[in-house]
## 1
Amino acid sequence: GQINGTTGYEEAAAQGLIAGVNAAHSSMGKEPFILSRSEAYIGVLIDDLVMKGVREPYRMLTSRAEYRLLLRMDNADLRLTEKGYQIGLISPGRYENFCRKRDAIARTIEELKKRQIVPGDRVDAVLAEMGSAPIRHSVSLAELLRRPDITYKKLQKLADLPDLAPEVREQVEIQIKYEGYIAKQEEQVKRFRRLEKRLLPGDTDYEQIPGLSREGREKLSLLRPRSVGQASRISGITPADISVLLVYLEKRRREGAGTDG
Ligand SMILES: Cc1cc2nc3c(=O)[nH]c(=O)nc-3n(C[C@H](O)[C@H](O)[C@H](O)COP(=O)(O)OP(=O)(O)OC[C@H]3O[C@@H](n4cnc5c(N)ncnc54)[C@H](O)[C@@H]3O)c2cc1C
């Protein structure tokens, strides 16, 4: 942490963890382990350090992450346990517990979207008791759960639903209530990933690419971003530079010399 210009316990620990994982991967001849900006704050931290540099001690503030609606504390296990398991940092027992939780969340959400409640006096009475408005036509249980005043426990009074572990219930409620916002951000992440996947070959000579701005050429030669996405986050790289890079990659791909992923 000190060497890379950050301050803070978590910042230092995060870099130590990734450095350790990658030292092990390197010695085993495995691909580097990289977390992206859309997967983890560690991804944001390292991408910022590598691409933006530091002029003052760097702190990991939530405002630095553009996808912070997805980088929530409540879903950290859903985002990262699979990856941790794949690199051998999660025990089989913990992984099994995680899979059970993940599957229970998915199953419950599917069930709530499928099951319909039809209007009627009994339903209206139960809703009124909960302080919620009556329904005019059939709605799914998921639609009801989207109401701010309805929780999973309250839904259990309207329909025969199983008891859930609190951590499963919490995720079901969050994922259904905020589905619209989450889906919008996932769409942005998809667009982001497309540019992250356009890898810039390590042997790219930016001096030889026509059309790049002078500043773009200098910064790209100095910082050598891994992907077009990473290049787009370097200050001074313009949208026109990005278009030039995409054309360059396409040309290389056609010539069959590129390693564009
Ligand atoms: C007074 C103070 C209060 C702080 N409070 C907080 C806080 O409340 N919350 C927070 O998040 N952060 C806090 N920080 C910041 C945080 O402590 C640091 O950012 C973090 O500990 C840096 O971790 P690091 O592993 O990069 O470096 P360090 O923890 O400094 O570790 C570097 C290690 O390298 C060793 N070393 C140095 N030179 C050599 C050498 N030549 N050979 C072998 N070993 C060597 C040192 O002895 C040291 O053990 C505080 C810092 C200070 C000074």
## 2
Amino acid sequence: MHTVRTIVCKLTPTPEQRVEIDATLKAFALACDFAAESARSLGFTNKVKVQHACYREIRETFGLSSNLAIRAIARACAALKVSAKMHSAFAPTSIDYDARIFSFHEWNWNFGLTLLSRRVKLTTKLGERQKAALKGRKPTSAVLVKRRDGAYFLHVQLTDEAPESIETKGTIGVDMGVKNLATTDDGENFSGADVDACRRKYSQARKTCQRKGTKSAKRKLKKISKREARFRANENHVISKRIVAKAKDTASAIAVEDLGGIGQRTTARKADRSRMKGWAFYQLRQFIANKALAEGIPVIPVDPRNTSRTCSECGHCEMANRKSRNEFVCKHCGFELAADWNAARNIRDRGKVMCPNVGVVDTGGRIPVETTGKPVLASPRR
Ligand SMILES: [Zn+2]
């Protein structure tokens, strides 16, 4: 199992190098278009087959080095596999690099990249964090990116063997929600108030843009969505970091709701539902999984059904237990707790049942819970 970290490095090309990079970006995008067109007409997206069909022509037509041509074909095939609609055109904004066409020189923090006509050395502007991450490494893949403001970056991928899974002593249950983005079984809350404020702030602007429907309105809409997504991603990074740090400190596994169930779990109002199901939950869970994997912390997906209406003290399950969105009061034993906190405790207990590293499972006489699968380590990011 591997973990992949991406280090974003700012490049500082000379004016001549800029021209060369732009020409290469353009040629690469055109080559992608050409490869996609060939794949479409051939009717398959297997990169080896497509390569057989158009490799020579791509090299001759666009002047790309052999490995850049192969990367362009690979990208086109990958894009076609993802979207049935298929790309109309590739934008000249990024190029994939592998070990043969890219190198890293630690002594002066430069990168060597193959461009159209030759190999060039590009100087960088790196912070201490990036230098520390790159020190002593031999990265084997990277993506050259030109941003909208004209700045060039190299996204360097560092692949590591994931550490062995740690010996866990306990399990942390994490409940994900709207009001509280995440709640752990010890009652720690990560409020969604900031995210909600951000969403509200942009929601009016979005409505206006959608009504207008002009080209510039659509552009603005895209910008707003991106800004909001960045905000939420940042929140998710902060939360996942904190949860994984807590698991590490206490040598615990992390139990989270099984993703498939997140959309169906609640009886949320309709307005909430669209927010419930979204990618943000998937993202938070994914961030937790990625960070946990890098620390060797097992992540256990559990069946999320009824976690919000089951008493985490006596196991009694009834819809009426959930007094309101925020309050939980058990009809059977009178146990009271914040609803999210109670759910997190249930998730923890379900995780414990499934975690092989926990010696004695104390179910406390509770009703047995259904499990959704074996404890697994998160899949590595691609
Ligand atoms: Zn109870």
